[in-house]
Amino acid sequence: METVYQLHLDQSATLKRRWGPLFVGAMDGYSRLPLALRTKRALTRAALTAAYAVTLWLLALTIADRTRQWLVVGLGLQSTAAIYAISNGMGEIVSALCVVVHFWAFLQRRYWLAALAIVVGIYFKLYPAVFAFPFFVFASMSREHRRYCGAVIVSTAAIATVSLAFGGWRNGFLYPVSMVGSVVSDAELIPILSKEVFGPMSLAGRVMSGFRVHPVDAATLALARRVTSVFTVLLVATTATAAVGLAWTEQRWRGSVNARPTAAVIFQSTIGFLMFAFSPDDSITLLLPIVVSMYAPLWFGMSPLVVLVFVAGSVLAGNLVPLSLVLRVVPLTWLDRIAGNPPAAMIPHEKFMWYELPMVGVALLALAFVLSVMRDDRWPHSPDSRTAAS
């Protein structure tokens, strides 16, 4: 965060991947603290650790079973993404906190808190907008949840007005709109061949080169420009479809003690997996904002097959054992030989990302989520079952 903030202050630098105005305002205050640099950095990591602890606590509260609550906390403490983000002072911890507060508050029907949390997250760093959009679409179609829309509109107006002080109109008030426009129109913003990212979009770029490491060329930039536009449309279309589907099935779960939380978890998890599938720059720390998706099977029915797939996915995604241990087991040298990359071209961490092993892990977690939902019996099968569920 300190490095990004310095780039924001450097008037001579052309900064395209901007963070939000609330981040700039927070770092303005941080830079003025009358403390030694070592002390300020320690406080930053303490604050990020506390934010992550609150994230896990609220996440656990959304699960009724006490054993699974502790399991979520235990797995969360093993998260490579969280350890990496805290140790390196990264803002994805804040994004994850805002997303989970929004999710928990929406479950509790505290729509003003949910709206404020997600809007603060958007104006800190853009990623929570992926969740705000489909929740807004769903709420606009649901009489019971329509108050959420008004809360989002008012919260956005208030936060955007405050943001004028830190970023002006383009990078403050209109930050979400201007940032989305920049990502879609400028292919250089997309780190399609970065050794730190993985996912479907980066996979497309690596397949073109047979997974060989090479500098970004004109063909790769052209591919990034085309794919980014397509993926952005797909992300909007699929999350909107999920919202319409949730509204369409509302009659089946409205008023049910168990079915409404079940529907909300399915919705939240689906959005997270869609965000991963269509994001232009997935990295290990960006698994934090989709934390509900990463642990989704724990909310639903479990079987030996679900457990096996969930464990395998968690290992490859760095959610079960430290990634440093996983790197000792994965045959990275063998993968180098297949791709034709020199052994010294990348460090082990970069090789793990480059060969898309975390993407395989997330895909397995998505499969475990689908299998666990299919086993769950809390979803009413007809409108009449709402009475019995109540």
Strand content: under 5%
Distance between the termini: 47 Å
| Rg estimate, integer Å | 21 Å
**Largest beta sheet: what is the strand line-up?**
1-2
How confident is the prediction overall: mean pLDDT?
88
* Number of discrete domains: 1
Along the chain, the helix and strand elements come as: HHHHHHHHHHHEHHHHEHHHHHHH
Q: Which structural category fits the helices and strands?
A: mainly alpha
Helix content: 55-70%
The DSSP helix count reads: 22
- Please count the beta strands (DSSP E, at least 2 residues each): 2
What ranges have pLDDT less than 50 throughout 5 or more consecutive residues? 381-390
Largest sheet: 2 strands, antiparallel
Q: What coarse outline follows from CA principal-axis ratios? A: globular
